[in-house]
Amino acid sequence: MTWRDTVITAWHGLTANVLRSALTMLGILIGVAAVIVLVAVGNGSAKAVNDAISALGTNTITVQAGRGEPGSFKLTQTMADALEDENLCPHVATVSPTITASATAAASQRTSSIDQVVGTVPSWFAAQNQPVETGRKLTSADVANSARVVVLAATTAEDLFGAADDAVGQRVKLGATSFQVVGILKSQGTGPSAFMTTAVAPISTVRTQLAGNGPLSSIVVQASDADSIGAAQAEVETVLRGLGHLNAGTTELPFSLQNASSLLETQESSGRTFTVLLGVVAGISLLVGGLGITNIMLVTVTERTREIGVRKALGAPRRTILRQFLLESSLLSLAGGLLGTALGLAVSQIDIIGITPVVVPGSVALALGVCLVIGVFFGSFPANRAAGLRPVDALRHE
Amino acid sequence: MSTPAVVSLEGVSKIYGSGEAAVAALRSVDLAVKTGEYVAIMGASGSGKSTMMNIIGCLDKPTSGRYELQGHDVSGIDEDTLSMVRSRLIGFVFQSFHLIPRMTAAANVELPLLYGGVGRDERRDRVSEVLDLVGLSDRASHRPNELSGGQQQRVAVGRALTMNPPLLLADEPTGNLDSTASADVMAMFDALHDEGRTIVLITHEDSVAEHARRIVQVSDGQIISDVLREPQGPVHMGAPA
Q: Among A83-87, A294-298, A380-384, B85-89, which range has the highest average pLDDT?
């Protein structure tokens, strides 16, 4: 019996009970689609966060005072100035000391609570990768004069003025002080930086009008390029140790140095965990689909025992029967797998809970491969049982 | 007589179960069927005639004794070789037809050719030839449930003939048929006998056995009589007179 004939025979076996074959296939189909979609969602969410972090700029180091005893270590303007010293820190390009405060913003009739008014210097915009869309950014003159000007995030501008484009030139009250809006930040999608930063004003103005003469909230240091970030970080650490009067042997620093690549690493590992978790859940559903195939094939074998007997009586050798049933289960799982792949790829085109799924080609290959293995593996037990039946017993079966 | 034996049973026994529960279905049976013979094996249910049919049909193996089919010793061979033997040497006709449902008459007739490894074109020719022979050319694409009992059994006879086996083995071929269809099917067997085919019928009905030229009576696992009969004229099959 040729392979072609075997395939045709198996096909007849499957089409004999279309509803049952379709339901069995559905189990595999859902499993495969779930694997593809869930892995794509996991991958997509990880990618979205990674993109947001990369947008911060990979050559940026953020210095923040750590969890040490209160008052024991403070970031000061002196430190920021020292970091800008070319002799002390040759690998540092720009230093942007920042102070943050929260305030209620009011314009005409509308108000909006602003989580973070960032007081900083002009270099901050480049270091944080926050370009200005309309209007202008802050200038050195603004800082020197403690000018009452502010650059708003697009979302804040919309809240206060309806449309972001209308905001430039308008006046907004932050706390008790009236500021003139000079620019609007470029909208950055849904990344973390987009909702954290809502208004940017000169550091001198924020210090006097909103925050008081406290320490700096953070210092954003930009390395001269991405490759020198390690060197820059070492220089920053040395300077801060010196100015903070820390012993050379102190290992627990009272400040933290964060750069985008270290954030990225943390995020990537947690993203992977998430994707693996989703993949496992989907894999279980694939396994359940496989058990469905075993179940159906067992029922089929039992139901068709007499037919198997007839075929054997007519001269079908053991391996032909084995092949026919194996092929039936393989065809079922392969068809289910291909349809599941199509469904999975189709669903992955749609945004799911705000995440754009990104299909991992490996997951498609894996799902299809597992699917075939399931077909052969779970199909072989019933097939073996069918092939092993003695014709005389099989024929007598009612 | 120089005609070779198609079936040759020598001291064949079949015992089911073991120990005290052992039941002997056949006790040292000797039987030879020569080419061209038309034999009816008769017996009541439980007499061992079905066991005999299973052994002659290579569907079951004897516990002891020697069985030669067309001169080949088949008592000790493995399952796959037995499949091949069934495919080449035996054509089966069963009481309940045993056509595969959902497959057309033509596809059913084609099955033995498929398992016998016959090529596609040859298969197609042979199928139409056989359907012609059993007078069902116009029913080739009908499924078993679209055919009458008599037609189904004719398809089954056709299927048994496709590989041109030296032995035609029929197990109660008229058991599920009404008198008209029975006469029809038996007439086919008679015609096949006239062509020189070797036919072994298993039956418990005298009216069926009457068609045969030799009647073997089985009882309690042993052959109790084996008689040759003279050819008869057409036998009227119907309600007992």
A: B85-89
Q: Find the mean pLDDT for residues B87-99.
A: 91
| A-to-B residue pairs, Cβ atoms closer than 8 angstroms | 68
> Long-range contacts: A247-252, Cβ < 8 Å, 24+?
A252/A68
What percent of chain A is predicted at pLDDT more than 70? 92
A196 touches chain B (CB under 8 A): no
Q: How far is CA B119 from the centre of its chain?
A: 26
Instruction: Find the mean pLDDT for residues B13-31.
Output: 89
Give the number of other Cβ atoms within 10 Å of residue B121's Cβ: 8
B115 in contact with A, Cβ within 8 Å: yes
Q: B135-189 pLDDT, tens per residue?
A: 999 999 999 999 999 999 999 999 999 999 999 999 999 988 999 999 999 999 9
How far apart, in Å, are the Cα atoms of B2 and each of A92, A389, B5, B6, B34? Answer: 112, 39, 9, 12, 9
With beta carbons less than 8 A apart as the criterion, state whether B124 and B86 touch.
no
Instruction: In whole angstroms, give the CA distance from residue A299 to residue A382.
Output: 9
Answer whether residue A92 shows pLDDT above 90: no
Q: Which residues of A touch B107 (CB under 8 A)?
A: 12
- The residues, ordered by sequence, that sit 6+ positions from A261 with a Cβ below 8 Å of its Cβ are A58, A229
b/e per residue A329-356 (b: at least 16 CB within 10 A): bbbbbbbbbbbbbebbbebbeeeeeebe
